[in-house]
């Protein structure tokens, strides 16, 4: 120590806390500018058009829109379905999280990848898969659930299981088993142990996942339209209808503001739950506790098996239907995919579409990773002043907002706000990866931030005390643990971008279809061949995303895709 | 599974995969400028400077809907003839397209538009998003599809399609039931629980069908018709792909009556078969005409005019049926299957475009209340 003493002196000239603060602020600027230009500006532009139509504020429509019977019905349905969807997803997701994260058995990594698959599949595919399954000719037609709210509910569970399983599972995996063991040793029954020891420890992550699922359910759009057969409107589908069909921007703005308020409240709740869960993780990250299954796990294994079967059923239906041709089993749809002249509906082959998808997803991933790392570093710092701490958590939440806002509002917003040089980006090919990056960004942040937060700040302080500059100190302390999470987040962002369709579809885009766009166009054309090709393309897309997620799973980063 | 072993390999796989992805992607953001093709170039890059000097390499930006497609050689033909290159900006359906143009009025995202149909044409014309242009001496068969009144100066018909109720003849034959003929038949108990249609608020054929029922039963009669239709077990899906691809008996569903197009039957000729197993009810059709026009404030109005002209040439018109599943407006030769099996409605149901523009919103709202009850 003595030999280094003289080096400490210059560092003291500048208060130690100031340097990182400046650096952190600089790091925050880039993502904030991005968010301002590509989210706040377009959404704000649409709201201004709605509330300030002819150069004057006009809020008269607010009461009128809120007073409509339809609005009340839509709000009621949205909240009711989101509540039910969240409850059911948690109910089925928790046993699955236990089995996939607390037990060790062969094939576990594959199952984990499969459970995440729905999260990265395009809704248009899932919608058609569910309809094919539940329609009266389909394998589950006897249930009579086609076009009912039950079908929508099932789809909500299908899409959001990943959120619960990954968030709660990641937490459960790191949970110290000693407390449970002590309780059991003192004579508590397994149920009692779960209720008094395990559940309280998991509760923050359950609340965090639950709020996110609620957010996703209440803003679901394509799946509600497809499965509900228009009988059920949600806020999101109503915003779409008011904007694209009626150009009723005021009505759309009123509903968007309601949605925005609800989303902010949900995110605030999730953030509070999360900060508690991270505090718990710090204390308990002691040792991995997964064990082999035993007899008493049977009920949970059965439930988990049924849930996995539930996830696989629509997927397998899709695979089976993609292999059926006019004359029985065939690979003709797959062969047709590789042949650009197979259908007049498409100008490119699947290979070109895959290439377009991959190159767009690479761009989106690069953007999401650069911004995501910046945001993660900023929000993982814990400033001492309460004001700064609050600022950091607001920043954290800000990047989640795009998940909860109507894609049509953002898409139309681009058109009216980014319309003059130097930022006339409306017709630019860059917008598609940017839109996808906005979707992937929160997932990147949620993957990397917990890892950064788990690093004891004292290591960084020690490095700084030994004379390392702020960057060097951060790298010394955090670099070694970051490698895998960075790779995992990259893979996850890439998989999400591959399947992204919602935001992409609202943007003016060059005539260069990605796989989801191609599927959508094929589905919209007459001829059974086109439908067969759409299903085959969906299988290709699923394989792509599952492979990427499988590789991510091998990296074993507990926080990938957890919230 | 040997975890310790596979984990490291997994990381290597991912790295290799990402490397491959990067290589595959070829032109990502960083490399995008290296190989501009006519379709994907950013119009801001070169249009401004070159268009004033010579049309060589200058661009025409065509704003259109997602169903627009033409073979590459047809688009290349335009460049050969005029020197302009087409850049396609495709997004959403006819309704969303029109509303996008209204929102961007004064600062349009392109030069020409294709795909505004007669259910939205009046909005585009009334909102002033178009500048008057119509190719000189239109052949009579094209003028036949023109919009009434002054609107004809702004939008030129390019193609049309008849939205009609389709039936699965094979199903009716097998069941020994006489198939329906008219819209009124669909409320007959014989056809209870057999009809599926796409929604007027979420699909453009659905909107066309609603307008057809308004044309048939009048401004005061259509509501009653729809109540009867719903009471007779009609179901509504969000889009055409859903009703035709999942619910129609031809696709394996349980409903032999579906809303589709007059051009759908040729696609139902079975493998090795001679004739379609489905047909369109030609008394139930609403004709959707798609128009092209020059956008007000276009950066390249001459190019836009040339493009509108080109869309009426034989090259484009002959390619339209196979590429977009609609009929050309000129007298070009139809593909064989179309000529044989895709009849158009002799007297499609008519509704004045101005009336549609005035009442569309009320109709759709009222329709939604009746059907979603």
TrEMBL record, chain B:
Keywords: Signal. Residues 31-56 are annotated as: Disordered. PANTHER family: ABC TRANSPORTER SUBSTRATE-BINDING PROTEIN (PTHR30006:SF2), THIAMINE-BINDING PERIPLASMIC PROTEIN-RELATED (PTHR30006). SUPFAM superfamilies: Periplasmic binding protein-like II (SSF53850). The keyword Transferase does not apply. It comes from the Bacteria. PROSITE patterns: PROKAR_LIPOPROTEIN (PS51257). NCBIfam families: sfuA (TIGR01254). This is Thiamine ABC transporter substrate-binding protein. It holds the Pfam family SBP_bac_6. The keyword Coiled coil does not apply. Residues 1-32 form the signal peptide. Residues 38-56 have a biased composition (Polar residues).
């Amino acid at each position: 120590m003595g030999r280094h003493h003289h080096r400490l002196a210059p560092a003291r000239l500048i208060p130690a806390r100031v340097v990182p603060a400046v650096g952190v602020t600089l790091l925050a600027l880039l993502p904030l500018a991005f968010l301002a230009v590509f989210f706040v500006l377009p959404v704000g532009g649409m709201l201004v058009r709605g509330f300030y139509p002819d150069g004057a504020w006009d809020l008269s429509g607010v009461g009128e829109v809120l007073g409509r019977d339809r609005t009340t019905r839509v709000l009621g349905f949205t909240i009711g379905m989101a509540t039910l969807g969240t409850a059911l997803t948690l109910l089925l997701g928790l046993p699955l999280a236990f089995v996939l994260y607390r037990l060790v058995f062969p094939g576990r990594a594959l199952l984990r990848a499969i459970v995440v698959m729905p999260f990265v599949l395009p809704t248009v595919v899932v919608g058609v898969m569910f309809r094919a399954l539940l329609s009266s000719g389909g394998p589950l037609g006897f249930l009579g659930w086609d076009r009912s709210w039950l079908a929508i509910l099932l789809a909500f569970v299908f899409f959001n299981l990943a959120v619960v399983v990954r968030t709660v599972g990641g937490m459960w995996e790191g949970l110290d088993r000693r407390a449970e063991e002590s309780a059991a040793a003192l004579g508590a029954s397994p149920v009692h142990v779960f209720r008094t020891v395990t559940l309280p420890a998991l509760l923050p992550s359950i609340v965090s996942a639950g709020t996110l699922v609620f957010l996703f359910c209440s803003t679901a759009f394509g799946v509600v339209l497809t499965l509900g057969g228009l009988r059920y409107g949600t806020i999101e589908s109503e915003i779409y209808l008011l904007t694209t069909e009626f150009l009723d921007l005021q009505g759309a703005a009123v509903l968007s503001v309601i949605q925005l308020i609800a989303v902010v409240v949900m995110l605030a709740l999730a953030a509070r739950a999360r900060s508690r869960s991270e505090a718990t993780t710090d204390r308990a990250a002691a040792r991995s506790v997964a064990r082999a299954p035993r007899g008493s796990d049977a009920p949970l294994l059965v439930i988990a098996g049924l849930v996995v079967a539930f996830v696989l059923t629509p997927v397998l239906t899709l695979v089976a239907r993609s292999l059926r041709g006019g004359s029985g089993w065939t690979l003709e749809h797959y062969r047709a995919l590789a042949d650009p002249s197979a259908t007049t509906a498409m100008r490119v082959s699947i290979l070109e579409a895959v290439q377009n998808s991959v190159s767009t997803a690479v761009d989106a991933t690069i953007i999401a990773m650069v911004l995501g790392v910046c945001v993660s570093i900023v929000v993982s710092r814990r400033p001492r002043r309460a004001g700064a701490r609050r600022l950091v958590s607001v920043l954290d939440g800000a990047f989640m907002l795009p998940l909860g806002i109507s894609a049509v509002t953002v898409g139309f917003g681009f058109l009216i706000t980014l319309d003059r040089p130097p930022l006339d980006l409306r017709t630019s090919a860059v917008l598609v990866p940017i839109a996808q990056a906005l979707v992937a960004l929160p997932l990147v942040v949620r993957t990397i931030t917990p890892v950064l937060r788990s690093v004891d700040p004292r290591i960084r302080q020690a490095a700084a005390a030994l004379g390392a500059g702020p960057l060097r100190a951060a790298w010394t302390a955090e670099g070694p643990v970051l490698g895998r999470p960075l790779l995992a987040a990259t893979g996850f962002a890439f998989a999400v971008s591959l399947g992204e369709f919602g935001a992409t579809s609202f943007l003016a885009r060059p005539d260069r279809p990605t796989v989801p766009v191609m599927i959508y166009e094929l589905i919209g054309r007459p001829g059974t061949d086109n439908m067969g090709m759409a299903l085959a393309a969906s299988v290709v897309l699923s394989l792509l995303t599952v492979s990427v997620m499988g590789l991510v799973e091998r990296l074993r980063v507990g926080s990938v895709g957890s919230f | 599974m040997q975890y310790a072993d596979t984990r490291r390999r997994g990381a290597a796989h991912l790295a290799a995969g990402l490397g491959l992805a990067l290589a595959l992607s070829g032109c990502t953001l960083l490399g995008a400028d290296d190989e501009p093709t006519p379709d994907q170039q950013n119009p801001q890059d070169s249009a401004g400077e070159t268009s004033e000097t010579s049309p060589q390499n200058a661009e025409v930006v065509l704003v259109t809907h997602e169903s627009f497609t033409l073979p590459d050689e047809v688009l290349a033909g335009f460049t050969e003839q005029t020197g302009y290159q087409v850049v396609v900006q495709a997004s959403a359906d006819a309704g969303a397209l029109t509303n996008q143009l209204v929102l961007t009025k004064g600062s349009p995202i392109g030069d020409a538009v294709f795909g505004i149909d007669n259910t939205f044409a009046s909005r585009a014309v009334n909102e002033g998003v178009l500048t008057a242009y119509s190719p000189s001496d239109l052949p009579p068969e094209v003028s036949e599809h023109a919009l009434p009144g002054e609107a004809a100066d702004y939008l030129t018909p390019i193609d049309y399609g008849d939205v009609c109720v389709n039936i699965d003849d094979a199903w009716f034959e097998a069941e020994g039931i006489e198939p329906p003929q008219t819209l009124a038949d669909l409320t007959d108990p014989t056809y209870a629980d057999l009809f599926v249609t796409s929604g007027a608020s979420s699909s453009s054929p659905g909107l066309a069908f609603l307008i057809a029922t308004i044309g048939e039963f009048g401004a005061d009669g259509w509501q009653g018709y729809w109540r009867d239709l719903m009471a007779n077990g009609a179901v509504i899906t969000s889009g055409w792909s859903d009703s035709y691809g999942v619910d129609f008996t031809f696709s394996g569903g349980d409903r032999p009556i579906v809303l589709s197009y007059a051009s759908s039957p040729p696609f139902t000729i079975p493998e090795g078969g001679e004739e379609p197993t489905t047909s369109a009810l030609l008394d139930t059709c609403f004709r959707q005409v798609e128009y092209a026009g020059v956008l007000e404030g276009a950066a390249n109005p001459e190019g836009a005019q040339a493009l509108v002209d080109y869309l009426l040439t034989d090259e484009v018109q002959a390619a339209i049926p196979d590429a977009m599943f609609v009929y050309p407006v000129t007298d070009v030769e139809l593909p064989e299957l179309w000529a044989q099996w895709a009849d158009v409605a002799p007297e499609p149901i008519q509704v004045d475009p101005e009336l549609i523009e005035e009442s569309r919103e009320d109709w759709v709202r009222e329709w939604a209340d009746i059907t979603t009850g």
